[in-house]
Amino acid sequence: MNKLQKSLSFLLLYLVFFCTSVVYANSGTTTIVLHDRTSQAEEARAGTNIGVYEVTEYVRQGKKAEEIAGIVRSIPPFSTLTTDKEGLAKIELANRKNNKNTSYLFLATDNKNQHEIIQPILLNLPILDEKGQFLTIFDLYPKHYPLSFPLFFHKHGLSMESNQDLGALSGAVFVLSKQESEEVYLMKSETGALEWTSEFRAEGFQKESLDFSACIGDRENFHSSLAFFVSDNNGRVSTGDYKLPAGTYKFKEIEPPSGYMLEVSSEIVAEIPLDVTKEIMLHLPNKNGEEENVSQEKAIYYNKQRGNLPNTNGVEQKVSRNLLPSTNEIMRAGWCLVGTVLVGVFFLVRRKGK
């Protein structure tokens, strides 16, 4: 009996010690080491900012990472990590809070001018290894979302008389701009590289003081280094291989399809959001001239047919590149002047003869 009591006592002490150890480990901390590398070249990415949010209650409500990210994105995180030159960032997190296992969300911030972003990461603590042991250090290798996208919309004709949608228009020419310290325009590239310039006028343009609106009407008025986006047979205008990071961009039409007018003041404002769960939206006038915000799939930009009456709001003829009379016009004017002089000489001689 004494032996049995001793054995039970030892077993009880062991269980108390074991359970205390488990509770202590479970109520401790875990050091998270985040590794940020580019998805293509596997190179370390320095300077990535990641907000860390304690989201235990949201997880207990059954919410997923993307849903939680949408809720907390506008809330300041309790801690912010920044990756070093080796692409590393560390943080020590509590495994338990208020007698509950904890959950954390890692959410990348400051995404402008980046072409990919760390996906939201939901991490539940504590973490056990394959042997059931609690980990005190955990390495995190996040995946990435693409954060650069092509922009697109559709081009349609509009009846002058009935305001009826006439369907897809091909041949409309656009340039793309954004605002930095000044407005800059996307330059053409065979690889889709994003390079920008403030010089939009064609080489040798005679009126350097002319603003952008004075040049529209003919793409020949614009610098040949610019990227031109032309509507195809389906009326689609797309940046194609030029994939753009989060930010605000403007499409400006510089040459209308034949037989259609160009609205000088109209432009298409495209907004690529920082939040990858949100749609890209375009701000543009509808066929009634009312400004609206629509998704890319629904965006249609209209040109009205040319009418017989003068149009003060639009451009009906191409603007000459040098804004000087053509050679034929000069010759016609010269011959008219010569004819006038000869007629005058004829009547003068006739008068003297009398």
UniProtKB/TrEMBL annotation:
SpaA-like prealbumin fold domain boundaries: 168-272
Domain spans labelled Gram-positive pilin subunit D1 N-terminal: 47-143
Keywords: Membrane, Signal, Transmembrane, Transmembrane helix
Pfam families: GramPos_pilinD1, SpaA
Residue spans crossing the bilayer: 330-349
Gene source species: Pilibacter termitis
Record keyword Transmembrane helix present: yes
Lineage of the organism: Bacteria, Bacillati, Bacillota, Bacilli, Lactobacillales
Annotated signal peptide: 1-25
Record-given protein name: Cna protein B-type domain-containing protein
